[in-house]
Amino acid sequence: MSHEIRTPLNSIIDYSYILHKDPTIPEHRRQAVDTLKRSGEHLSALIEDILDIARIEARKFELNYEPINFQAFIEHLVRIYKVQAEDKGLSFRCQILNTLPQRVRADEKRIGQILMNILSNAVKFTQTGEIIIRIGYSGGVANFQIIDTGQGIEPGQLEAIFQPFTRLNTSTGNAISGSGLGLTISKILAEIMGGDLAVTSTIGKGSTFTVRLFLPNLGAAPDPVQQDNIIGYRGRRQKILIVDDQPEHRDLMVSILEPLGFVMTTASDGTRCLLQAQRNNPDVVLLDLTMPGMDGAETAIRLRKNGLLKPIIVLSANAYPADRAYAIQAGCNDFLAKPIQVRDLLNKLKLHTGLTWVCQNDEPDLNAMPETVLQLPPADILHNLQAFVRIGDLLGLNKKLDDLVKNNPEYKPLSVRIKTLSSEFRLAEIKKLLA
């Protein structure tokens, strides 16, 4: 039956994809094509969920354990759901509670399936506020917490949500679309892997899903990207604020990061940090904990109260677990103990900002140019490009960019940047670029 269903469904999905990319489709038919594409994808996902349940019941479900790059796995999750949350107007934060292993032994597909089901629900059910993914690791056990500020779940439904085909209602009384199998499969998978999945919730305040899994630490692996080879990064210039009462440390961080293309500002205490953050809106704050007057934790609390949503990474000589917990509770995203290893610092920046490093041996790439030098075309051309983005016609957008660059080579950096974003379906960033 699986084969018989998949064969015609494959044609439906593939041809709807082709039609979706066809710029000649009339505007009044494009909505129908979009509906066809979404419905086909939804049906495909439903079939996969049902087949997973059938495999489990038939005891033919196999796990594929192999070494995985745990840090890259987390980075991938953050990149996907940060974009989805921000597209919906939500804040998305990743908090690392302690040092994560570089490699673990796990079934990457199934762990991803568990966490993606929960993160997707968090984005779906949260209308305002934020989503936090909090990750800890100790004694071979990884602990994931997905916290949202959604409508919450009634106490009587906390167990029912793990039953097959259960769908929660929104505050308007309407059921959210979905198969109702995602959480069922996630809980079963967690238990099959020797872990567990639990939930706590408060009506009107949100929910917290906790996943605990045994993921043996396999130690470090050779890093294909050495920090000595990194010469910059792709995309717009990122602004970093260094906050430390020691001028030597501030100067050291500036000397490490400024040559890579970061725009650096510094502050010697918490009060000056608040002023600099309000003035410059940094993309990342690197914050010391122990400072005269206002300490780092209090500074982080005030930064969050002032509306800063960007990552805060603590760089501190106070390296006890209690110091890390203190920083995380204050709203910081991550923690590095001094003396700072450059490799660890660059890995943290990549994790929390989604940077793509440019290395010495890479081919020259116009996309690596700072966004500040990208020249925008006149208003009428911008309006045409924006129209393609509004309807999601990336094929038409790229063709329009090719035509533009033929007669106006000065717009090639802009074209390269937009094509890179479109290849990753990052429509929200394209809209901001063309705004």
Give the helix/strand layout.
Elements (H helix, E strand, L loop, with lengths): L1 H20 L5 H31 L8 E4 H18 L3 E6 L6 E4 L1 H18 L4 E9 L2 E8 L33 H11 L3 E7 L3 E9 L2 E3 L10 E4 L5 E5 L3 H11 L5 E5 L2 H11 L3 E4 L8 H10 L6 E5 L4 H9 L4 E4 L4 H12 L3 E3 L19 H12 L3 H14 L4 H12 L3 H8 L1
Parallel strand pairs: 2-4, 10-11, 10-12, 12-13, 13-14
Antiparallel strand pairs: 1-3, 3-8, 4-5, 5-7, 6-7, 9-15
Helix pairs in contact: 1-2, 3-4, 3-10, 4-5, 7-8, 11-14, 12-13
Summed up, what is this model?
By secondary structure, the protein is α/β, with parallel strands linked by helices.
Structure explained in plain terms:
By secondary structure, this protein is an alpha/beta fold. It has 14 helices and 15 strands. The chain has helices at 2-21, 27-57, 70-87, 108-125, 182-192, 247-257, 270-280, 296-305, 321-329, 342-353, 379-390, 394-407, 412-423, 427-434, and strands at 66-69, 91-96, 103-106, 130-138, 141-148, 196-202, 206-214, 217-219, 230-233, 239-243, 263-267, 284-287, 312-316, 334-337, 357-359. Helix 3 (70-87) runs parallel beside helix 10 (342-353). The chain is globular, with a radius of gyration of 24 Å. The model is unreliable at 172-176 and 364-373 (pLDDT under 50).
Detail the poorly predicted runs. 172-176, 364-373
What Rg, in angstroms, do the CA atoms define?
Answer: 24 Å
Order of helices and strands: HHEHEEHEEHEEEEEHEHEHEHEHEHHHH
Mean pLDDT: 83
Which band does the percent of strand residues land in?
A: 15-25%
